[in-house]
Amino acid sequence: xxxxxxxxxxxxxxxxxxxxxxxxxxxxxxxxxxxxxxxxxxxxxxxxxxxxxxxxxxxxxxxxxxxxxxxxxxxxxxxxxxxxxxxxxxxxxxxxxxxxxxxxxxxxxxxxxxxxxxxxxxxxxxxxxxxxxxxxxxxxxxxxxxxxxxxxxxxxxxxxxxxxxxxxxxxxxxxxxxxxxxxxxxxxxxxxxxxxxxxxxxxxxxxxxxxxxxxxxxxxxxxxxxxxxxxxxxxxxxxxxxxxxxxxxxxxxxxxxxxxxxxxxxxxxxxxxxxxxxxxxxxxxxxxxxxxxxxxxxxxxxxxxxxxxxxxxxxxxxxxxxxxxxxxxxxxxxxxxxxxxxxxxxxxxxxxxxxxxxxxxxxxxxxxxxxxxxxxxxxxxxxxxxxxxxxxxxxxxxxxxxxxxxxxxxxxxxxxxxxxxxxxxxxxxxxxxxxxxxxxxxxxxxxxxxxxxxxxxxxxxxxxxxxxxxxxxxxxxxxxxxxxxxxxxxxxxxxxxxxxxxxxxxxxxxxxxxxxxxxxxxxxxxxxxxxxxxxxxxxxxxxxxxxxxxxxxxxxxxxxxxxxxxxxxxxxxxxxxxxxxxxxxxxxxxxxxxxxxxxxxxxxxxxxxxxxxxxxxxxxxxxxxx
Length: 626
Hints:
Helix content is 16%, strand content 37%. By secondary structure, the protein is of the alpha+beta class. The protein has three domains: 251 residues, Beta-galactosidase, Chain A, domain 5, CATH 2.70.98.10; 157 residues, TIM Barrel; 196 residues, TIM Barrel (Alpha-Beta Barrel). The strands form six sheets. Strands 1, 6, 7, 8, 9, 11, 12, 13, 14, 17 and 18 form an eleven-stranded antiparallel β-sheet that branches. It has a seven-stranded antiparallel β-sheet with strand order 2-3-4-5-10-16-15, with no helix packed on it. The protein has a seven-stranded parallel β-sheet with strand order 26-25-24-23-20-19-27, covered by helices on one side. The longest helix has 13 residues. The N terminus is likely disordered. This is Alpha-glucosidase. InterPro entries: Aldolase_TIM (IPR013785), GH (IPR017853), GH-type_carb-bd (IPR014718), GH97_C (IPR029483), GH97_catalytic (IPR019563), GH97_N (IPR029486), Glycosyl_hydrolase_97 (IPR052720). GO terms for molecular function: carbohydrate binding.
């Protein structure tokens, strides 16, 4: 239900004229305000938080160099709640004040929508008709203080920063800036600059950030249609850096679910074969690309309630239009039949480097093979191509997981919830490189702002991987610095609809008491999510609730303790807690697999001191004591 409320804001008396305006739009709680100024016939905005300037006067336009006039305004307030198909919350509140401006850019009528939320601001242009040969571009300056620190994703590498704006202004500096940008502002607020609902904006590519006296974001329009709808340009604002990860504005502005019956979309965990090749089990069996190896994965998944098994590259040898040549190393049909018998769903990799099957036919073909999803590799940052792949996969009732520097489709999980995950990060052992504990925390606070990540955490045989006992292990031996409890915690901290755990069944079977946390964790079915602690490069601690059970995962790059305050538990209830911990002997370099498990009881208001070694982690599973 949408409730339209009457407001007594400063802009309630906007004129119906072409006179310049200089007014203000406030968030529902009054703490965030957007100041609007068209007195110079150029549209300017600025943002204040609790009376202090966060972004100074900045230009914004849809037609470069065109003068703008205000024809009229309309104000409304919206308060509604909606339920996502899956996600970090089972219900999301959409609460904002919106200003609709009717603008005239020279002779072209334009609508500009500005929404002020308690956690940020959103902007979108809509143009119904564009004259021929008229260039359109969503141009937006960000008047950040020079004292601000800025961080950027770096593709499949560690995110970069912090950068000061004067560093970016150096003409010799070629630093590439990617969405989402994270900013530590001068007043100690944290800001995320990104966009949402690119799915509803044909003709636009991902926002391009550059420094041109001020930080600038551009979306260039290249469609031949008569009109345009831009993505929503977002400025998220939080006092705590971790709250940016749970900020729901990007989902609230995204188009509603387009899949009429999404009941087939089931988030979950998946085993994965790619990093297990050449692993030798205690019984002498060696894993490879063959039926027996895949039967072992499927058996373990079935026994331990893991929903999926993901088969990566090398199940086929060649692709031509309408034809995929199967490898003679395995019989995929028998694997598919075996998985169906065991109640395990399969996800199958596809690599465009080997040839183009044709997407119109590809997804029905995958469905005919008995697949439940596709892991799509090497599509790249092609917006229209990727958007269409999501739509077509949904028509065939297939989940889709994008790999290899994909489009950061922020908000897509609302519009097409079959877009279950994407490798918009440096995945664990990606390109056979291990990432550092510091890099993990950066990606959890930066890359994760654009949505679910496929990061492949959860390695249990750390010693075996580090010693080179895998065909696809890291090129640099002993470069995987982590602990087994940190690996478990990472599977919870990184939000995804498909948690891909990359180790051998026997590696998990050898530590089933620790694997219990992953097994019990209801991926993507969360009712509530909180980031309890977060500091760039140092630590992050995330709590997620399903029904009346809480799962909490923490990691610390430098080693140390965090105080977990259980004030979110219910009054009057006693809870059982299981602790999954590093030990005094655990060392992320020399003894990464040492861990301990203990149990106890807790209640609301208790404070648990969580201790971790450098590069280590900690997990808590809390549930009512029956």
